[in-house]
Amino acid sequence: MNSVSVVIPTYNYGRFIADAIGGALGQTLEPFEIIVVDDGSTDDTEKVVRGFGDRVRYIRQENAGVCASRNRGVAESKGEYVAFLDADDIWLPEKLEKQIAKFAEDRDIGLVHCGMREFDGETGDTIQLHLDGGEGSVANDPLLWEKPGVNVSGTVIVVTREAFEKSGGFDTEMKVGEDWDFCYRVAREYKVGFVQESLVDYRSHSASAHRNVAEMERGMTRFYKKAFDGADAETLRLKSRAYCNFHRVLSGSYFHSGNYPQSVKNAVKSIWNRPANLGYFLKFPLRRLSKNPVAMAPGSDK
Questions:
Q1: What is the pLDDT of residues 227-243, one digit of tens each?
Q2: pTM of this prediction?
Q3: Which of 4, 69, 266, 286 sits at a 20 to 30 Å CA gap from 60?
């Protein structure tokens, strides 16, 4: 049947959500349904959404966070596949068609992601194209941060209903890193497909949750604890390497946010887990200053 339910969580994004809904309605593969879950907005979100009439289903709930909103949307949906769209992002017209086609290539695929264009929400200028991604059996990639794995922004993924239910949905205790955690749990059970095209315009702006490095650290620490608690021997062998790379990323993120004590603290943790990283950090300030500021934190809901 290839029916796709689109779930759009939103909180006070009335200024953006019309563009998001327009992108969903403009798909070459028409969605079976579009569900907006309003997480207690106090702006004009409801008015904007209701302006689309019966083409969009509007659900309002008390503020509970993006994970609860996504889970609620899936619970209310009926499609064979579920596609998530953040209310401040925009889909290109062929996104769903090209992703759904990937599922037909292998029955073992439970999730398909795609490339995206990150753009400045104020100017519209392109910040970066994210066109690398893993496919096949890629469960270890989110643990190690060493090569392209799943493009873990929720707005680029489509999952089968079976995969969503088997994974347990989104962890409502997480505010940043929840996409990373969800995609990892799906990838542990299913193969992953990837469309190497920019099919999403991802808006970067001051309200984006990925700019909160401390929340990123909290969320991803929870992710790693869950991943390694009760893990099999093969996964546990990756633990030290995974934490080394995680703290290296955190060190760089704190450095660019101006929190130098936390940057140093995480550099020490990285070296503790893998002493060979000492050379990397000795060259760290010069190398990092020559690059762009903090890249997107993993799995942020913005």
A1: 999 889 999 999 999 99
A2: 0.89
A3: 4
